[in-house]
Structures are given as structure tokens and as C-alpha cells.
């Protein structure tokens, strides 16, 4: 079994452990954020962790009302600039905790009055040692180059973080069922394998999502890029209309990650427009109306909290990416030109 598939299937148990290991420290951190009157949250990350941070930005703003954004790491690492970060919480997100630019930014933030948090899979990493507070994913060593279980851990931790900030006890409790939620998603493996043959010769695609599902679309695109070498481009469904729509072509399929929430009508509208142009659409959704417009679709559980549905979609897009890679004859554990730890400065 490839390491990537093995790690996808480890997720129910390791993500449950991640939740249990971090719930009390997250409770403490979010209390301290309120006690210190923190009014701004900034993420610093790269790669899959940057996609997780984008999810964190959305979920924190939507649930808690605290403004959140993404930092440009090179401001600290290359330009050597200091930012005014009083009343700001800066969260560094990195599987390895070793990326120099992420560490440089967190170090600068700490020196300029920010509360600092590290989310890593290595509690003894440089990033963890810099940070005031540490969240350890504790998902075990991730050997596959393509991140799977670490990405899922990051989005679960950030949703739990947002739920505590918002004092949403119901969501905190619902997240405690993450093991069975991921197991249910993985049970769709057979359907995904059946759907994959159609895309054997795909060399380009668009992947759309909006709101809290947009970062999942970005991660889906990244997984396809790094394992299948397909030019997969991830866009917000709304941004897709602002220029990229001009690139559509009957030979370029469009994947839409769209659990039912406030964004569903926008996703249905773009699907209708694309089908009129003869574009093949693949949907990951619990909307019957949207799925009916697709040439292939994968169901998302309808009964889940709208903020947990994107977490259900994560293993689905990971499995799709894995089986597409294998179908194309590639080794998902040895993507060309890539290594597990990327050191950027």
C-alpha cells in the first residue's frame, strides 16, 4: 500500500487523538485571547498549511467576528521589516515547523507584542520553540510527500479554535465525533474509484469552492498538481467569474466542492452556466439540484453541521487525488522535484 493511502486511512483515529489532545489547551488559549483583548488574528503558512490557514481565516471570522488574515512571510524573512502587532494573535501553521520564513515571521511577531501560536506535528520544532503557545497535531510521522492527515488535523484544530472563540459548545461537541465523520467519508472510496476512469487523460482542470469550502478546493487542486502533474487551478466560485471563466473549454472539466450552506445558490448558478457551455462538471455536494447537473458526483452527508461538511469533503478529495495519480501511472509517494520538508526563506 502506498504511504499516501495508508495515511489517508489513518485519519479517523489520529484526528480523534488530535482533537482530544488539544481541546483543553485550545480552551485556555481562546480564554487568554479574550482576556488580552486580542482583536486581530494573522496566519503565516505555506503550501497545504496555507490552505488550512485560509480555512482558519474564514471559520474564525464567520463564527467569532474577529478579523483574520494571511501574512506575507517574506516581509520578515527577506525584507526584515517589523510590524505593529499589539492586540494581534499570530498563528504559524507548519507540519514540520522548520520553514525558515514561517519561523522568522513568528519570531518578529513575538518581538513586536503579538500573542504567538504554533500548530505543528513536531513539538520540538523551531516554530514550536519560538511560539508562546503550541498545538501539537500528534498524528504520527507523515511520510508521504503529499500532506493528508496533517492538513486534516490543521483544519480540525482551527475549527475547534474558532468554535471556542465563538463559545459554540454545540460545534465543539459535534467535532468530538470527527472519527466517525471521517470513517463515513472514507466509505465512499468505491464510488470514487468508479468515477475516476473518465479522467485518465485529463491534463488540466478547474476546481471551485466558496466560503469555508474554498480552501478545500485549493487543497484539492494542490493534491492533483503534486501527485498527477495536472494543471489544476483552484478558484473561489465568485472569483472564477472575474476573468478565469474566459478559459473554459470542453476539454477542461470543472470540479465543484459545494456542501449546502449560504453559498450553494452561487455554486448552482455557475454549474448551470458551465453545463450550457458543454463543460463536464464533477460535484462534491449534498445538494440534489447541484449534483443533477454533474456528469459525476460524490455525496456529502446532509445531516452534518454546515461547518463540519467541509471536513467531510477533505478525505473525499484526498481519495480522488490518490486514485487519479495511480490511474495515471504515477507514484504518489515520490512526486517529481518535491521533498517532504520544503525550506523556504
From TrEMBL:
Domain SIS as annotated: residue spans: 29-171, 195-335
GO biological process assignments: carbohydrate derivative metabolic process
Pfam families the UniProt entry points to: SIS (PF01380)
Highest taxon, organism lineage: Bacteria
Organism field: Caldicellulosiruptor kronotskyensis (strain DSM 18902 / VKM B-2412 / 2002)
GO MF: carbohydrate derivative binding; glutamine-fructose-6-phosphate transaminase (isomerizing) activity
InterPro entries per record: GlmS/AgaS_SIS, GlmS/FrlB_SIS, SIS_dom, SIS_dom_sf
Broad EC category: transferase
Protein name according to UniProt: Glutamine--fructose-6-phosphate transaminase (Isomerizing)
EC number: 2.6.1.16
UniProt-listed SUPFAM superfamilies: SIS domain (SSF53697)
Keyword annotations: Aminotransferase, Repeat, Transferase
Amino acid at each position: 500500500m502506498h504511504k499516501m493511502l495508508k495515511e489517508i486511512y489513518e485519519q479517523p483515529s489520529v484526528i480523534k487523538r488530535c482533537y482530544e489532545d488539544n481541546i483543553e489547551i485550545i480552551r485556555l488559549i481562546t480564554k487568554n485571547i479574550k482576556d488580552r483583548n486580542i482583536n486581530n488574528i494573522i496566519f503565516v503558512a505555506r503550501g497545504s498549511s496555507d490552505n488550512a490557514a485560509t480555512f482558519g481565516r474564514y471559520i474564525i471570522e464567520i463564527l467569532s467576528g474577529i478579523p483574520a488574515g494571511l501574512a506575507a512571510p517574506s516581509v520578515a524573512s527577506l525584507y526584515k521589516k517589523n510590524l505593529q502587532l499589539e492586540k494581534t494573535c499570530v498563528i504559524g501553521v507548519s507540519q514540520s515547523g522548520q520553514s525558515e520564513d514561517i519561523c522568522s515571521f513568528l519570531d518578529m511577531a513575538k518581538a513586536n507584542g503579538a500573542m504567538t501560536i504554533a500548530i505543528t506535528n513536531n513539538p520540538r520544532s523551531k516554530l514550536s520553540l519560538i511560539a508562546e503557545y503550541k498545538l501539537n497535531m500528534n498524528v504520527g510521522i507523515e511520510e508521504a510527500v503529499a500532506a493528508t492527515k496533517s492538513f486534516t488535523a490543521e483544519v480540525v484544530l482551527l475549527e475547534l479554535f474558532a468554535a471556542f472563540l465563538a463559545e459554540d459548545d454545540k460545534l465543539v461537541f459535534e467535532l468530538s465525533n470527527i472519527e466517525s465523520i471521517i470513517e463515513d467519508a472514507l466509505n465512499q472510496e468505491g464510488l470514487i474509484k468508479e468515477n475516476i476512469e473518465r479522467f485518465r487523460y485529463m491534463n488540466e482542470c478547474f476546481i471551485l469552492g466558496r466560503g469555508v469550502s474554498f480552501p478545500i478546493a485549493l487543497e484539492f487542486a494542490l493534491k492533483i498538481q503534486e501527485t498527477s502533474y495536472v494543471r489544476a487551478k483552484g478558484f473561489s466560485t465568485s472569483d472564477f467569474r472575474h476573468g478565469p471563466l474566459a478559459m473554459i473549454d470542453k476539454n477542461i472539466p470543472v470540479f465543484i466542492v459545494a456542501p449546502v450552506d449560504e453559498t450553494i445558490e452561487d455554486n448552482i448558478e455557475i454549474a448551470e452556466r458551465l453545463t450550457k457551455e458543454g463543460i463536464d462538471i464533477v460535484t462534491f455536494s449534498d445538494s440534489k439540484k447541484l449534483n443533477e447537473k454533474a456528469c459525476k458526483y460524490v455525496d456529502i452527508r446532509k445531516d452534518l453541521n454546515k461547518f463540519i461538511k467541509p471536513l467531510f469533503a477533505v478525505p473525499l478529495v484526498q481519495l480522488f487525488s490518490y486514485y487519479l495519480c495511480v490511474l495515471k501511472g504515477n507514484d504518489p509517494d515520490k512526486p517529481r522535484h518535491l521533498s517532504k520538508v520544503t525550506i523556504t526563506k
